Amino acid sequence: MAMGAVLSSRTFASPLSSSGKQHEMKQNNSSPPTGHKFSPLTTRTTIFQVSNYSRSTSMATFKLSGRFHQPVLESSSIRRWWFYSANLKRRRIECFLTSDPINTGWLKPRRWDNFTSLDTACVQPDYKIPVRTRADCKAEQYEITGSPLSPSDVPTEAVLIGDTDEISPWWQQFPKRWTIVVLCFFSFLLCNMDRVNMSIAILPMSSEFGWSPATVGLIQSSFFWGYLLTQILGGIWADRFGGKIVLGFGVVWWSIATVLTPLAAKIGLPFLLVMRAFMGIGEGVAMPAMNNILSKWVPVSERSRSLALVYSGMYLGSVTGLAFSPLLISRFGWPSVFYAFGSLGSVWFALWQRKAHSSPSEDPELSKDEKRHILGGSTLKEPVTSIPWKLILSKPPVWALIVSHFCHNWGTFILLTWMPTYYNQVLKFNLTESGLLCVLPWLTMAVFANIGGWIADTLVERGVSITNVRKIMQSIGFLGPALFLTLLSKVRTPAMAVLCMACSQGSDAFSQSGLYSNHQDIGPRYAGVLLGLSNTAGVLAGVFGTAATGYILQKGSWDSVFQVAVVLYIVGTVVWNVFSTGEKVLE
């Protein structure tokens, strides 16, 4: 509860006391006893200059019964203190005032002491604009004896100086921009859960339906047929209609396709290929829509961290899917994994519709302080009505994004779709072991993506140019996997193979602070279109790489698969460091 009044340190007498014994209100600045537990009391208060008011001035009435209650105005307009017992607890109050007008955060506490009178204690504030002030009060109990007070003996200086409303719960104070980030995180979690379940289910499905490795590769790549179609379209839709609508549509679409996958497989291979393509259509709009909405909600100083968190949702989705799919398949059969994962999309969509908005200007609950922090002095621009394709495609940094995204995704999608097969055929792990061991590399990516995000934002805050930060992080994201995939072809023990795979994926995660953050750097207004454009090249790498891996394995070995990926990683490193930039090139 909040204390809404400040009492002067005057001595006053009770007329109801026969002995004329005085009650004395004193300030105590002594240190608290060691080990004494304080009860924190927090209130939101605005201090303003006060003067001595007479008893006829309209004041608030407080009722005390061991604790303070909300003030109640009475018609008599006289402040009264009601004491229900002659033997009450007196409290020593120590106040610490802190305020932060911008982020409503905490600055260094300042002790509010040495009260001599209200005229000196409550002074005109220095702030010229309304600020949010907090007071932390520590109370220690000690005894006071005497008779009840008469209403006529209320100190005239006891004045209500602020509201006594309680602070909102922490979940209501959670920044709205990070609410959007967390919801995007869970959408990407579901995205990869629904995508990688086929990597596990394909093993019992191929045994049941008699599919060859080439057919398995065709099924795996069919997802990317639809995924490819909606990359650029998803970016255009998001930039025109808003990320909320487009991302919500994508989650609902791919969730329905996931649930219908077992039925399509039992009807026939062509129906399964079409259903996987339909699923790709839904997931294809996710990244452009997410990039669009975060470009409006997240300031540049938090960009790497927010994107790293969202993309770590993809990695944790792979972890969740690869960990639970074998358990569901072994107990309920392979169709169960599609039913279970697909149904989760409805839960997410309900939260998304209630909490998300495409931009800060559309959120009526967004505070002015947070909106000012998000915009950083700039103004929100109108939604895109036309895409300047000629201008976009004339910029070398855009082509650096396209080429680097292709090189990056070739290796990433091979590991995503073929890793369980590699563990099963090369390392001789069974189905359950293959799924569980596939968790380690993706868990490593989830951890290192966020580490890379914090490192990148810290470098930016310390003055390192955005261009250098992006080049450093992406070079790690290319050269790390190239090194560990080269070592993977040399090792012969399962433990070392799993370790190399984990290290390869962990270093790959630094790309989230490199090329995946660069779309918002060079053209925030066209962030959705830019990601759709570069990710189209990345999807082509997934289509060709996943299908090519199946044909390579029919005539060659896994060493050949890894060598192709290493060459593309090196090409991407050169292109990125020569042509990329962190400066805005598209207005």
From TrEMBL:
GO terms for molecular function: L-ascorbic acid transmembrane transporter activity; phosphate transmembrane transporter activity. GO terms for biological process: monoatomic ion transport; xanthophyll cycle. The keyword Transport applies. Keywords: Chloroplast, Ion transport, Membrane, Plastid, Transit peptide, Transmembrane, Transmembrane helix, Transport. The keyword Electron transport does not apply. Residues 1-40 are annotated as: Disordered. It is found in: Plastid, Chloroplast membrane. It is a multi-pass membrane protein. The chain crosses the membrane at residues 178-198, 218-238, 245-265, 271-294, 306-326, 332-351, 439-460, 472-489, 526-553, 560-579. Probable anion transporter. This is Major facilitator superfamily (MFS) profile domain-containing protein. It comes from Oryza punctata.
